[in-house]
Amino acid sequence: MNRLVKVLVGALFAAVVGSSSLANAMNVTGASQAMTIGDKTVTASDENGAKIKFVSDGKILRLMSADGTKDYLSFCSFDGIYSRVDYSVRALETADPAMRIFEIAATRDGKSCGYWLVGNHIGGAWTTYVSWNSFANLGFRTDRWHDLKATIENQQLVITSYSARGNMDWRAQVFWNENDGWFGLKRF
To answer: Where do the domains of the chain lie?
Structure first.
């Protein structure tokens, strides 16, 4: 709960103090091709070389140990409809700090219905650093149609939302807050 409070306070601070410039902490140094999971299993490695797998049944996506004995995190649609969800996953390599995080996006019929940044945190516990709820704290309207696009701009991760008419309606940068040892969002 203490981490959640820190994230919420950090997000509020970024929204109040934010400007159009990019925050400096955390440079994205590499990104894998996004892989659509569908109803199959995709394997990957964390930053320490440990094998993991992403497993989906079209409703829920699970991040599991490679042998399937541990379910680290599970993800489901934020819009309350748990069928026909397509999940895509890509690995992001960062510097300042050096990490491998996984970006997970959920869509249904061209509409975004979930977004997460997850990683192996201190002590080896998998955690969600950023989610759809994090965006809502910065004015993201969760009750509207969105098409989220994540891009790397000047080595920074930027999340942009487009309305059903194709107009940009929300934009934020993901950054690492060295003081809190946690991710933050800065809205443009």
So the answer is: 2-187
